[in-house]
């Protein structure tokens, strides 16, 4: 039997490791030659194949690492707090300007350019939040009316209202130990734990009894945001009857009993007990 026939299997195995046919013949001759190594084993090369899947032609490598800016790291709550704090600070500056102008202009012939400064200090406008209140009205109607028709019983309505979200609700301060805020009304922009942040209208719309007034305080001229503490304060709000928009149902909030975060209030059960410390 010739060498060619005896080494067919070895050639087949070596062809998996070597591309050159002459290299395979050289290895076999060296192994079986009298002057060769005459080793009883054959050493195969360890070929590492690329196991990665071929990438699409549309694939593009991102060589630059993605950097998260500081603005994106801020949470919504932090941004809202900064906005409220900055707006209240601007309102205080504007009120001081009006007071300074009134002291110098005692005759009243030169009115203060309020609209110019409202835009300069970016004071929020009450009219811009009407749509937010309309959305809240629809939300409240779904809570107390069954399929938009009959009103549900108070035993089922009150627990729903205590757990409701009041962002967008038009609130009016009915009673308070702080007499300066009585009559204030505005739309809730943030239901905080210890206070309601309201956006209030200006001038004659700021309070119910201001409609007949001709002169207004600097605070009433500015409007904007107001922080009304919940403690020792009673708030009122109305829910429009979807069957007749001229009718509405009035409800009262005892602020001292609402000093709970809105996200936690939904899981809290309110108990009937004495409320001697309302005001």
TrEMBL record:
Q: Which Gene3D superfamilies match?
A: Ribonuclease P/MRP, subunit p29 (2.30.30.210)
Record-level Gene Ontology MF annotations: ribonuclease P RNA binding
Superkingdom in the source lineage:
Eukaryota
Q: Any one Gene Ontology biological process term?
A: rRNA processing
Keywords from the UniProt entry? Nucleus, tRNA processing
* Keyword tRNA processing in annotation: yes
In this entry, which stretches build a coiled coil?
A: none
| Entry GO terms, CC | nucleus; ribonuclease MRP complex; ribonuclease P complex
Report the main location listed first in the record.
nucleus
Where does this polypeptide localize?
A: Nucleus
Tell me its family: Belongs to the eukaryotic/archaeal RNase P protein component 1 family.
Q: Which PANTHER family does its entry note?
A: RIBONUCLEASE P PROTEIN SUBUNIT P29, RIBONUCLEASE P SUBUNIT P29
Q: What is this protein called?
A: Ribonuclease P protein subunit
């Amino acid at each position: 039997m010739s060498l060619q026939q005896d080494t067919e299997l070895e050639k087949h195995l070596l062809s998996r490791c070597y591309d050159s046919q002459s290299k395979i013949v050289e290895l076999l001759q060296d192994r079986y030659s009298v002057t060769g190594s005459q080793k009883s084993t054959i050493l195969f090369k360890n070929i590492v194949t690329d196991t990665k899947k071929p990438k699409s032609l549309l694939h593009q490598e991102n060589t630059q690492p993605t950097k998260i800016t500081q603005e994106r790291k801020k949470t919504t709550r932090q941004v809202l707090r900064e906005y409220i704090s900055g707006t209240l600070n601007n309102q205080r500056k504007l009120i001081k300007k009006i007071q300074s102008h009134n002291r110098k202009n005692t005759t009243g012939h030169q009115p203060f350019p309020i609209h110019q400064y409202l835009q300069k200090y970016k004071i929020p406008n009450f009219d811009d939040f009407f749509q937010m209140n309309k959305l809240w009205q629809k939300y409240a109607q779904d809570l107390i009316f069954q399929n938009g028709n009959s009103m549900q019983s108070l035993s089922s309505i009150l627990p729903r209202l205590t757990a409701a979200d009041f962002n967008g609700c038009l609130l009016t301060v009915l009673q308070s130990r702080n007499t300066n805020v009585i009559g204030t009304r505005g739309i809730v922009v943030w239901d905080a734990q210890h206070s309601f942040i309201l956006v209030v209208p200006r001038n004659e719309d700021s309070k119910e009894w201001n409609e007949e007034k001709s002169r207004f305080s600097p605070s009433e001229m500015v409007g904007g945001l107001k922080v009304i503490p919940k403690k020792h304060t009673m708030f009122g709000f109305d829910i429009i009857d979807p069957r007749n928009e001229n009718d509405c149902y009035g409800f009262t909030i005892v602020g001292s009993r609402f000093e709970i975060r809105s996200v936690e209030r939904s899981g809290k059960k309110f108990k009937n007990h004495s409320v001697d410390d309302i005001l």
